[in-house]
């Protein structure tokens, strides 16, 4: 079925567009009072994410209320370790917490082999099918997963961390175990992303939120190697967002994906000089711009748009929108992009 608004997909594949598409990472939830209302009707984040009817409802909210050019399924990257046997809890005001973590070979027994993603992650796949119905072909739906390195960080550390030093330690003290885990995560992630496509996801994004804590060689060995496997196995519009992976930008450009996500510290012109017209670039306004006045949001957005030297762009922030940003400011950003003629 043809989408009414397929700007995001056309921009992904380098086709002609009349204006730049715009959406926000973490748009589904957090900033909208309408989301908080749905969230308050259940016990917490996990119940919301695991209830397809509600997850699809909050996925569609930013399309209706903010006018974004794509929806992203309301879920979390941590559903993958959860499906593999390491269950997480989302603790209010603190974030994710895993009761069991992986520290040595014997802990591998905590992880289930050969899991069926259609079974263990049925709730996400159902939410995708339901969302497709509720979107009624208005805009594309983005599916996603965490990149293996970022997922490994949570499996080893068991929660967020400033340094993820236990995970980085493992790379030096037991690299074999790290590779074993990364390969298992990769295999599940490939199956999971393909299942998301089968259930209706029009495009996919891989989030490598902790790419930036590894040195260049480490990121090649423990990050890129597995991202490459995923991108080679999964076809279609695909964005790799490796936050902070500055020294690997040119390597990222060699991946067979359509789109590279840039954070706000990355230089758009430099990234373009590395890839020419071979990639769509996504990003990269500093999310903090959205704390500014209406005029400031407009002028900073214009500055970014004017720096684009190619139509191959998808406009976004350089990372997820912060929860205390006012929806009106988000709308100012979105409308500035939508009213800008290429
Ligand atoms: O982008 C979207 O709108 C879709 C939903 C989405 C969520 N998490 C929902 C969520 C996406 C794409 C994610 C990805 C995710 N989750 C990442 C990668 C992106 C990034 O920000 O770097 C990471 C590292 C996580 C892990 C995670 N989930 C953390 C560390 C936390 C706690 C801190 C926080 O950001 O709130 C979460 C919780 C989470 N995931 C919430 C939402 C809406 C907040 C839960 C709540 O409603 O209380």
Descriptive notes:
- The chain is an alpha/beta fold and 342 residues long.
- The protein has a single domain (7-338), classed as TIM Barrel (Alpha-Beta Barrel).
- It has 15 helices and nine strands.
- The chain has helices at residues 7-12, 33-40, 45-49, 52-65, 79-83, 117-120, 122-135, 148-157, 165-173, 175-198, 216-233, 249-253, 268-275, 294-307, 327-338; strands at 71-72, 88-91, 95-98, 141-146, 203-208, 238-242, 259-261, 280-285, 313-317.
- The strands form two sheets. The protein has a seven-stranded parallel β-sheet with strand order 1-4-5-6-7-8-9. The protein has a two-stranded antiparallel sheet with strand order 2-3.
- Helix 8 crosses helix 9 and helix 14 runs parallel beside helix 15.
- The model has no long low-confidence stretch (mean pLDDT 97).
- Coproporphyrinogen III is lined by residues 25-30, 39, 45, 72, 74-78, 90, 95-96, 144, 160, 207, 209, 320.
Concise overview:
The protein is α/β, with parallel strands linked by helices. The protein contains 15 helices and nine strands. It has a single domain, classed as TIM Barrel (Alpha-Beta Barrel), CATH 3.20.20.210.
**How would you sum up the major sheet?**
7 strands, parallel
CATH topology assignment: TIM Barrel
Structural class call reads: alpha/beta
Q: Any ligands, ions or cofactors bound here, and which?
A: coproporphyrinogen III
The chain-level mean pLDDT equals 97
* Rg from Cα: 19 Å
- N- to C-terminal separation? 27 Å
- Report the total helices: 15
CATH class: Alpha Beta
* Anisotropy-based shape: globular
Percentage of residues assigned to helices: 40-55%
Stretches where pLDDT falls below 50 for ≥5 residues? none
Strand order of the largest sheet: 1-4-5-6-7-8-9
Strand content: 5-15%
- How many structural domains does the protein architecture include? 1
Write the CATH architecture name.
Alpha-Beta Barrel
How many DSSP-defined strands? 9
Question: What is the H/E order?
Answer: HHHHEHEEHHEHHHEHEHEHEHEH
